[in-house]
Amino acid sequence: MKRDASLAVRDLLTLTLGPGGVRYSAGVAAGDWIFGTGLLGRWLHEHESPLPAEPVPLPSEPPERGEARRVFDLMEAILSCGDSELGHVLRLDQYYRAARAVDPYHQERRARFGHYIPASTSMLMRDLVLAEANMDIQFVAARRGSLLAPRGIDHEQLKAPPTSGFSPVVLAGDFVFTAGYIANTPMGQPSRRGLALEACIPEGSLWRGTQIALETRYVIEKQILPALELAESSPEHVVKAQVYLTHPQEVGDFLQVWAAYFGNARPALTIVPSPQPSIGVADARIEINVIALRKDGATRARPIGSAELSPFECAAPAVLAGDLLLLSGQMARRSQRATRGLERFGNAVESEVAELVDTLQSLCEAAGTSLQQVVRLQQFHTDLEHFYPAHRVLSGAVGGRPLPFSAIGCSAPLPYPLATTMLDAWVYAPGGAQ
């Protein structure tokens, strides 16, 4: 039977990169969704592209501003191909090589978006896949005229810093996207080195809670829960969370607090080890963003996959929310133990990623879709030298289709200490959880 084209993903702008012929899809359209993943401003001028040649940076501005301009040119080209525009972007994920790139990027972002800036998460990461790149940007947007048209919600308690000005919560039909939250206070309120006093161990105390537990509890109670309430959602309706930890050894402490609030809902969960510092407040240890559904909406969600495929007891392996399958950050377990000490007898990275592919394909099949319908693929590597062997396996798994990947160098260890790669995938699942 011939598949209805409206139920398949459509690659909007593809490139072939490097001597290895890495096939990359910068933009993907799927139903009413538009995705841009791994947007890097410094490789496109070297390859065939519908965009003009990269302009020479003006001497009156930092080179990172020109790089940001190039990224937004690419973003607008993808949106135009997908019948969308900047005003329909719902969420931005931004990874930077160094803090000096953030302000120039924010300046260009404000110039492009104007008064409405989508829900945003920004992190300094250890490495980017292109050595010359200072930023790697991803976005999620809605097609013009769809029910997913965004509506930003602002609130004094959740207000973003004026230098960035993003929306703390964005509604898109029945979907709720929050910005990345950290344990800071509204401007003008007491803090300690930028952190809320409630999120800090009292001075002189040896045991009044752990720092990570205090920060996690503050982010959930003072930011995530109020944001969900503003959006007419609740903890039970959270379907996906992405967490950045600057002290990977504290993952157990984090999970203990997280499970107290979201253990019954068991949303998909990705925990990314990040450098210290890497968050907007230098002493902050955690940043969390979530995706939820409105309580009274028609869109339904259901967990996908058996318990052994879950990376954490309080998380589902994946959640099918409407027509999106949102997976937890998956890491290999079996292959890492099996190949330990036998690395010279094969490629350990390929074995690791082959196990991940089996897991992803199993979850896709359980949701009535396939890995070939992937619309967003974040690859977190503790060593980016592992990117190319990982890509070879992933490319073979999708039949050579250009992959919408973003490859980021994260800190070590991953939550599974023997693993070196974590995959965070979103897959289009037409028909969805009705």
Structure explained in plain terms:
Strands 6, 16, 17, 18, 19, 20, 21 and 22 form an eight-stranded mixed sheet that branches. A six-stranded mixed sheet has the order 1-2-3-7-4-5, with helices on both faces. It has a six-stranded mixed sheet with strand order 8-9-10-15-13-14, with helices on one face. The protein is of the alpha+beta class. The longest helix is centred in the middle third of the chain and has 20 residues. It has seven helices and 22 strands.
Distance from N terminus to C terminus (CA atoms, Å) equals 23 Å
The largest sheet, given as strand count, sense and whether it forms a barrel, is: 8 strands, mixed
What structural category characterises the helix and strand content? alpha+beta
Give average pLDDT, whole number. 90
Number of strands: 22
Supply the number of helical segments: 7
What integer value in Å does the Rg equal?
20 Å
Please identify the oligomeric state.
Answer: single chain
Helical residue percent?
10-25%
Tell me, briefly, the overall form. Answer: globular
Uncertain spans: 1-5, 45-51
| Beta strand % | 25-35%
Order of helices and strands: EEEHEHEEEEEEEEHEHEEEEEEHHEHEE
Set down the secondary structure blueprint:
Elements: E1 10-17, E2 22-30, E3 33-39, H1 63-81, E4 89-96, H2 102-113, E5 119-124, E6 127-128, E7 135-142, E8 150-153, E9 169-172, E10 175-178, E11 191-192, E12 195-196, H3 211-230, E13 238-245, H4 251-262, E14 268-273, E15 286-293, E16 301-304, E17 318-321, E18 324-327, E19 330-331, H5 334-339, H6 348-366, E20 374-381, H7 387-397, E21 405-409, E22 421-428
Parallel strand pairs: 4-5, 13-14, 20-21
Antiparallel strand pairs: 1-2, 2-3, 3-7, 4-7, 6-21, 8-9, 9-10, 10-15, 11-12, 13-15, 16-17, 17-18, 18-22, 19-22, 20-22
